[in-house]
Design goal:
heterodimer; A: Cytochrome Bc1 Complex, Chain C; Helix Hairpins; 61% helix; globular; B: Cytochrome Bc1 Complex, Chain D, domain 2; 3 domains; two-stranded antiparallel ribbon; 8 helices
Chain lengths: 418, 271
């Protein structure tokens, strides 16, 4: 994709093809000889894992769509019929439902890795921003998908989320009605959500193509956060990273299989095994776990419009990280101060998720969780808008190694592995 | 006793919200449902399977007791002889279907009732779903003091606490209501049910059913059997799932071992 190509067509058909559609050259340069830093650790295997997750979701989703009926009167029963009467339907559906959770687990690890090693910093800003776009598309797709089984949580989750748009002054209610295709969440809503749920994954696949394209221009960042100095710092992608990614992917799939086969409803909510009923509101409406931190932010703000702005702002903020981080080195390995703030941030995100999972008036150790969520939300914003710019200016980074190969071969005792 | 558990939070809430003094007295008791009993079931764990005897007895309890009010919409008679379920023989399942009467399709004249207005009925076949006790929600409510008996097809998966929860409800009618808690008119006391007032009258008595295999039909035994049956109704492919899962696990772990060896061999000279 970038840099001088090392492809050497050595058969007649390859030369013929290379002069017309250089597909073999593209594959050769991107997944075969692509020079990759030789010090990538386990956290760098999640990109490949995410591609696998997207593939699983698309394949299982297409099969599910062959049996699913997008109709408010039939959707719930059609999902149950997939579970009971379609050959291995239970397997396809449990893979799809748990696959969504595994997808988000992987994407969060991938994103935190990006922040820790400063992978968004120049010249990789666009890779990060495209990644944020993929993440937003994933959340939209997951939300639409969660509505489709048309259980109680599907219906009421859709009601709560679409009602957020009604907080927009003047036109809010009209936007909500336009989204519903009706005056409430109903059959029209279910049909359009199904349509969009089928469309978005292919858009994600396209944007993932851009993400990888943009990655292949500067090449991978690495745990040291320093640039590749020459061939001695890299190994060809194949076989080194194909085999390493395949190994860690298999470990990931083992975890995935534990959920699919032995705890398929672990991430689910029992209420979603009750058919949607517009007349009965569940006592606690909770989104899927991967949206809980945002849900906690939303609920911690007393004013609905402000809550929506704070929640949406938390996502939009991610776009600006490449310029908010003023640090001179990329990797937190050499940023003693930033590293501490980073880990506090990671804990804060988990705390927010916990607050979102509890009922709105809950308290722990006598502290109302709504206040915990407020403080955590404040830290979330402060981390990006205050800590990142200020720490970068005042912090003295540790001495960075001269090159990757020197660090890998030379002073393994001096730089303990992380 | 755990039942009278005064919660500061709920009483403060009640002070704020409830105007009448009598209503306050009712609200002062925390009627949050009790934690379900720790019953054990054969289908738990990575290798657990449904106990066939329990499934068959459980079907009998469902048919003779629960089916008076509760449907199991997603169960068909052919499910009863499939592997991983009660595994009645095909002849037994056919006999059970034939004995069940379900609403007939409109006859040649397009009628669904006979001359006297009685709905036309026919025997079920293996392809038919189990009969519903009431034709619709209104009929169900009219016959049950405006309470709606829920469909039981997925009751074990659709309730927090699962099998233990359903078991606790069925065996939880015999605890005494604490002083100060007044059971609502037309409801029954059950501390395992949220709010403690349940619309269902105690469904099981000792010897409500007579088991043909000689098992003693205590309330606990019947509850345990029918909960096993309902767990299967919720998750009929569980045994297939765990069996396939075991094979998948063995394969993946072997694959991971091979890949680890390949990974170490390929990278041997890099570090």
């Amino acid at each position: 994709m970038s840099g001088p190509s090392t492809y050497n067509p050595n058969s007649g058909i390859e030369r013929w093809l290379d002069a017309r559609l250089p597909l073999p050259r593209l594959l050769h340069d991107t997944i075969h000889t692509f020079p990759t830093p030789k010090n990538l650790n386990i956290w760098y295997t999640f990109g490949g894992i995410l591609a696998f997750c997207l593939g699983i979701q698309i394949v299982t989703g297409i099969v599910l769509a062959m049996h699913y009926v997008a109709n408010a009167g039939l959707a719930f029963d059609s999902v149950e019929s997939i579970m009971r009467d379609v050959n291995y339907g239970w397997l396809i559906r449990y893979m799809h439902a748990n696959g969504a959770s595994m997808f988000f687990l992987a994407v969060y690890i991938h994103m935190f890795r990006g922040v820790y090693y400063g992978s968004y910093k120049a010249p990789r800003e666009l890779i990060w921003i495209i990644g944020v776009l993929i993440y937003l598309l994933m959340m939209a797709t997951a939300f639409f998908g969660y509505v489709l089984p048309w259980g109680q949580m599907s219906f009421w989750g859709a009601t709560v989320i679409t009602n957020l748009f009604s907080a927009i002054p003047v036109v809010g209610q009209h936007i909500a009605t336009w989204l519903w295709g009706d005056f409430a969440v109903g059959d029209a809503t279910l049909n359009r959500f199904f349509s969009l749920h089928y469309l978005l994954p292919f858009i994600i696949a396209g944007v993932v193509g851009l993400h990888i394209w943009a990655l292949h221009v500067p090449g991978n960042n690495n745990p040291l956060g320093i640039d590749v100095k020459g061939p001695q710092d890299t190994v060809p992608f194949h076989p080194y990273y194909t085999v390493k990614d395949a190994f860690y992917l298999t470990l990931f799939v083992i975890l995935f299989a534990v959920f699919v086969f032995y705890a398929p409803d672990f991430f689910g909510n029992p209420d979603n095994y009750q058919p949607a009923n517009p007349l009965v509101t569940p006592p606690d409406i909770v989104p899927e776990w991967y949206l809980l931190p945002y849900y906690a932010m939303l609920r911690s703000i007393p004013n609905k419009l402000m809550g929506v702005i704070v929640m949406a702002g938390a996502q939009v903020t991610l776009v600006f990280i490449p310029w908010l981080d003023t640090g001179r080195v990329r990797s937190c390995r050499f940023r003693p101060l930033m590293k501490q703030f980073f880990w506090v941030f990671a804990v804060v995100c988990v705390v927010l998720g916990y607050c979102g999972s509890q009922s709105v008036d809950a308290a722990r150790f006598g502290i109302p969780l709504v206040w915990v969520a407020r403080i955590a939300t404040a830290y979330y914003y402060a981390f990006f808008w205050l800590i990142m710019p200020i720490v970068g200016l005042i912090e003295t980074p540790k001495k960075i190694p001269a090159s990757i190969s020197q660090s890998v071969l030379g002073d393994s005792a001096a730089a303990p592995a992380e | 006793m755990r039942l009278i558990h005064l919660s500061l939070g709920s009483s403060v809430l009640a002070l704020g919200l409830v105007a009448s003094a009598s209503a306050f007295a009712q609200q002062a008791i925390d009627t949050k449902r009790l934690h379900p009993k720790a019953a054990e079931f054969s289908f738990e764990g990575p290798f657990g399977t449904y106990d066939r005897g329990e499934l068959q007895r459980g079907y009998q309890v469902y048919k003779e007791v629960c089916a008076a009010c509760h449907a199991v919409n997603h169960l068909a008679f052919h499910h009863l002889d499939e592997p991983g379920g009660p595994e009645f023989t095909e002849a037994q399942a056919k006999a059970l279907a034939t004995a069940a009467k379900i609403p007939a399709e409109p006859n040649d004249k397009g009628e669904t009732t006979d001359d006297k207005g009685t709905p036309l009925m026919r025997s079920a076949t293996l392809a038919d779903h189990l009969p519903m006790p009431f034709p619709n929600e209104n009929a169900a409510r009219a016959n049950n003091g405006n309470n709606l008996p829920p469909d039981l097809s997925m009751i074990v998966k659709a309730r927090e606490g699962g099998a233990q929860y359903v078991y606790s409800i069925l065996t939880g009618f015999h605890e005494k209501a604490p002083a100060g808690f007044k059971v609502t008119e037309g409801k029954y006391f059950n501390p395992y049910f949220e709010g403690w007032n349940i619309g269902m009258p105690p469904p099981l008595n000792a010897n409500s059913v007579t088991y043909s295999d000689g098992t003693k039909a205590t309330i606990e035994q019947q509850a345990h059997d029918v909960v096993t049956f309902l767990a299967w109704a919720s998750e009929p492919k569980m045994e297939e799932r765990k069996r396939v899962g075991f094979g998948v696990m063995v394969f993946l772990i072997a694959l991971a071992g091979l890949l680890f060896a390949a990974y170490k061999k390929v990278w041997k000279d890099v570090h």
